[in-house]
Amino acid sequence: MFKYIIKNSFYNFKNLYKTSLLSYFWVILQPLVMLVMYTIIFSQLMQAKLGDLGGEYSYALYLAMGILPWTVFVTAVTQGVNGIVNNTNYIKKIPNPVYVYVFQAVIEQLFHLVTVFSLLFIFIFFYGIDFSFQWFLILIPISLLGMLILGISMILSPINVFFRDVERTVAITLQVLMWSIPIVYPISIIPESFQWIILYNPLYYYFDAIREILLYGHSLSVKYILIMGVTSFVMFFSGYKLIKKLDSDVRDGL
Amino acid sequence: MLEMDCKMSPVIETKNLTKIFRLYHSPIERLSSFIPFSNNKCEEHTALENINFKVEKGEFVSIIGRNGSGKSTLLKIICGVLQTSSGSYETKGKIVSLLELGTGFNPELTGRENIINSARVMAFSVKEIKNKIKTIEEFADIEEYFDMPVRTYSSGMYVRLAMSLFLHLEPEVFIIDEALSVGDIFFVQKCFSKIEEMRKNGVSFLFVSHDINLVQTISDKVLLLNKGKALYFGDGNEACKIYFDIDKLIKPNESLSEQQEVEDHHDYNELKNKKQLFHKEGGRINSLIIVNEFNDQTLQVEMTKVLEFQIAYQAFSSIKNPAISIVMKNRKNIVVTTIIYKLEHEKSIIAVKIPFFVEAGEYTFDLIIGDMSINSGIFICEYKDLGPISVLFDYQNERAPFLGQFGLNTNSRNY
């Protein structure tokens, strides 16, 4: 089954941009535009507000490390939550459990990480940061993030079949989430008395971990691994349980 | 010995299979059903009730029944896309269903790419399909379109491509539904000869169709469903007979006691339980009996043979030119022909002999009494959608006197 999912998501991904001229370039074009816009607005126009980013690194690099993975996160969650609804005609015809299609929808989007991170590494070399073996540590937050996305999708996608309100709510929530954690701004600009709001949000640690490793060259602290690990595993397995339980109802409801 | 074993074990077997759908009228109702101890307001609809049947290796089993009788639900359960509410079923080997026709087809990919893509989505061996792609290409016979994006296909080409793939997947059980009726007769015939070949190789078939004629000629066994219940499972001819009599079985005539004395032969009347529409005063249709050449009452006729319509009517002198018309319609609701005869005021029965030089299939007819002018007239009273009459022909094994909708009266000479 796992082989089936991977194979199909890979070919779906391959056929995604079959008839567009720019093909895979579209994947990075959107975050690239965002990157340029935010850089102009924040580092040029609102410079004073930003404060210290940790010395020699520019805001653009800081932003890229947040916003590139974030866009993948957003599309993967959106596609994952719609994973059942969008694949109705498969589910109605092929006797695979429904979670297969949620997995496919998410993994198809996660392939974008490859393109996005290649872009990121070009950036990093451009800024003259030297390669270090510690970089491989980002595989931990990234794979745990993937598990989290799968978990969220498996919880919400079957509910979305019965209540379409879910997909709208998710779209809005994702917008709010982006601004509620430091994706485009550094945490230092938040008054210390309010920082706990961010620190209690598990999502913060996934995106901060990527910066910790790539930008600051730190290792991953146990605290980070624990928070991410527990969140991801709890979400993943409760999602898996739920979607299996609702399988039959989902089919009847489609 | 091995062969014996195979024959003994059915490839599909259901035991008291039941499917109940829960229907919610609004999302709020559904939401409240999640809350424990709330009084659950959902409506339950029993789509299938205690279905027992089996398909042996190499057998051709058909499922018939009116719309809404549960045929599709049963197929979906057997394919595994729906789950049962209670009861069980067992299947052996790979099942391919034409319900899946065209699944995994991506309009941007070419026919060739789609064949591979579709096989992968349906979890069939891509390697095997790659080996067979030449045969599939030949079978589909869509020439240069095979290497063009599927979005440029006509719907006929689409079905040809999909069918060609499906017929070469080599499953143990093959489920066919109405999809087969698309495509021209030559392609359909090609499919049937392929099906015949597969059947000889031990593939079992489950066939759903409204084409009773076809079901009768092709099946080993027939399962007759009505409103979720299995009315009959076994011999095809018997099942088809019951199918046409479902109304009589289900609705016992409530007013029988009053009417019985009046017209005893009304029991055999085709107009029973139908409603006469009156547009104007002046006439009425009393009864209709349809018999074949042996004077047996029937609604089935062999192609080119005759049915006699015996119509009892009343036409009063207020109608100037009373006439009766029988409007035959095929299953696409297209008027095939209208037969018009003049009626006489004082007579009360007309017998119309109709030779059925039409394509095999089902035909319904309207019966109308009207006041006739040249080619039109005023409707006095009518019965709508009577029948269906099934015209039978074994296109597989017998040479048809004509192909297409009608048989024209033709002659030929050799010089």
Tell me what the structure shows.
The complex is a heterodimer of chains A (254) and B (415). In chain A, 72% of the residues lie in helices and 0% in strands. With 254 residues, chain A is mostly helical. With 415 residues, chain B is of the alpha/beta class. Chain B has helices spanning 2-8, 27-34, 71-79, 111-121, 126-140, 155-167, 185-200, 212-218, 236-244, 246-250, 256-259; strands at 12-23, 43-55, 60-64, 86-91, 95-97, 173-176, 204-208, 221-226, 229-234, 276-278, 283-292, 300-302, 306-315, 322-329, 335-342, 349-355, 361-372, 377-392. A 6-stranded mixed beta sheet of chain B has the order 5-6-7-3-8-9, sandwiched between helices. In chain B, strands 10, 12, 14, 15, 17 and 18 form a 6-stranded mixed beta sheet that branches. Chain B has a 3-stranded antiparallel beta sheet with strand order 2-1-4, with helices on one face. Mean pLDDT of chain B is 80; it is low at 1-6 and 250-266. Classes of the chains: A mainly alpha (254), B alpha/beta (415). The interface between A and B is medium-sized, with 21 and 24 residues.
List the keywords:
heterodimer, A: 254 residues, mainly alpha, B: 415 residues, six-stranded mixed beta sheet, 25% helix, globular
What share of residues of chain A is helical?
over 70%
Mass-distribution shape of chain B: globular
Instruction: Give the end-to-end Cα distance of chain B, rounded to a whole number of Å.
Output: 61 Å
The tally of beta strands of chain B, per DSSP, is 18
Helix content of chain B: 25-40%
> Count the strands of chain A?
0
Could you give the distance between the termini of chain A? 23 Å
Q: DSSP helix count of chain A?
A: 12
The low-confidence parts of chain B are 1-6, 250-266
- Taking all residues together, what is the mean pLDDT of chain A? 85
Shape of chain A: globular
Secondary-structure element pattern of chain A, one letter each: HHHHHHHHHHHH
Mean pLDDT of chain B: 80
How many whole angstroms does the radius of gyration of chain B measure?
26 Å
Describe the sheet with the most strands of chain B: 6 strands, mixed
Strand order across the largest sheet of chain B: 5-6-7-3-8-9
Rg of chain A, alpha carbons: 19 Å
How much of the residues of chain A is beta strand, in percent? under 5%
Would you tell me the structural class of the helices and strands of chain A? mainly alpha
